[in-house]
Amino acid sequence: MRRFVLRRLGYALISLFLLSLTIFLLVRVTGDPTVLLVEPGASRADMDALRSELGLDRSLAVQYVSFVRDVVRGDFGRSFYYRTPVLELYASRLPNSLLLALTAMAFSLILGIPTGILAAVRVGGWWDSAGKVFALLGLSMPSFWTGLLMILFFSVYLGWLPSSGAGTVLHVLMPAFALGWYFAAAHMRLTRSSMLEVLGSEYVKLARLKGLPEALVIGKHAFKNALIPVLTLAGINLVLMINVAVVVETVFAWPGVGRLLYEGIAFRDFPVVQASVVLGGSMIVVVNVVVDILYAVIDPRIRYER
Amino acid sequence: MSVNAPASSRTAGVTLAWRWASYHSEGLPVIPILILLILGFLAIFAEFVAPHNPEVGTLSLRFRPPAWIAGGSSEYLLGTDHIGRDVLSRLIFGARVSMLVGFLAVLFAGFVGTVLGILAGYIGSWVDQVIMRLTDAWLALPALMFAIFLAAIVGPSEFNIVIILGLVYWTRYARVIRGEVLSLKERDFVRLAIVAGCSKWTIMRRHILPNVLNTAIVLATLMLGVVIVTEAALSFLGVGVPPPKPAWGLMLADGKKGLMAGYWWLTVFPGVCIVLMVLAANLLGDWLRVKLDPQLRQL
Lengths: 306, 299
Fold this sequence. Notes:
The complex is a heterodimer of chains A (306) and B (299).
Chain A: H1 2-29, H2 33-37, H3 44-54, H4 60-72, H5 86-121, H6 126-140, H7 143-157, H8 169-199, H9 202-209, H10 214-244, H11 246-252, H12 257-266, H13 270-298, H14 300-303
Helix pairs in contact in A: 1-13, 5-6, 5-8, 5-10, 6-8, 7-8, 7-11, 8-10, 8-11, 9-10, 10-13, 11-12, 12-13
Chain B: H1 4-24, H2 30-44, H3 46-49, H4 87-123, H5 125-140, H6 143-154, H7 158-169, H8 171-184, H9 188-195, H10 200-237, H11 248-255, H12 265-292
């Protein structure tokens, strides 16, 4: 077990190393980072001063070490636009992102799990076909287009929901649905296949042989076990949602970390862009490790693999 | 007789060919193929099909609704946008951008992923370790954010988008193809080739590559939808295809300017195009997966 955890942590460190190295190198390969780091319209002397201040005349290896040291300390520099440390900015936006992601997750589970179970129980039937269409549409519609259509219908045509901003419960409904729709399709698919697998297993057959009513077999015996993979995926997806929300957040002007990234691009606020990507990537790496280790705790077979 | 003989054998040949075709096209997804063919046709012949110049508009004709609504004219069938450009023409030229970027990015990603997958699977040892660790690390990155980051640095252009999407999406090919190669490596024809004295490179090129191509094609079709949505998202955010080029994602971004005023056609039509194309690619990919590669059915 300890060996597994150590190896998994090792892989995670490699991932983080590659992530930081990629971002570090890309900034430098694609041109003089001072151009990206100074505000537009800065004078030559300012740029030279900044270059020596940032130590860009040193060797790449030395620069990389100091870059990593700053990142580990949580020092991502200051935003040009807001003139505050980037990390503070990110932290102030994170609660909004979490709220959006959690609501979207609730939508996706409420929509995805029951439809997935129904599709599995009535496999090949009407529900199953309807579920397939739903899943296919969900996976094919870009979330930002779903959002735009909802604004058209609920804000412009009906005038029921606010089209942008945050603050009330009403504000979170549309972005959360637009974001959750894709994941609802993914959760539905997984629930269906996982449920089908469980329904074919020996203990479900036994429960049926005992003469348990079908509702009890499905509701009590099959449902619980079929849910494990779905909830695992949901855990990973929650972090993913925070990071893919950028387009939906842009549509609804939702003040989350995705919106921060978008503003960073629009205002050429480079420290913000860099920090958003490093922090988002690290979040995903960490969650992957936690899930893998939890899996190994639950299922001993995984520990001895590879 | 001698005159009839070739004719009858030809009909027999045709019947056979028809039988072969109908067997192999069982459950052929006609609608997705039709959608892709129509979009492909529009993309290739955009200059001849589009009624107007997609990049030049008439300001006095801005925000015209589609033809069937009061105020619309048959000259601008699907209406005009915020600077008076014809929506239909932009959609038609947009098909070209989407298809070009989509296909090239999938090809590029497929090339990188297939080459790395074959190398990792066949050579093994440290090469395998390095490539697979790189793949793992890459998979951990949030694809969309990574693409946005790259696009923000290198600046918007169609060529850059292709490179970026290729760099972001090669990992899936590498993983799946490495797995295939691992099992191919143990097959008799590869062992015979080794005994016959073929070099590693010859074996990889002549014996391994043709056998993983089916898998690569299936993956490519399935990736096409993902790539097109990502391109649209990047263009929508302003880091993809640069304006005034007509890309569907860019049109949605422009359409947002008229959204609150209720100019729905600027938002609905480009989105419908994206969904049609992605849907067609996904359906075709699903069908190919079952047809060409039984091993991928679980994917």
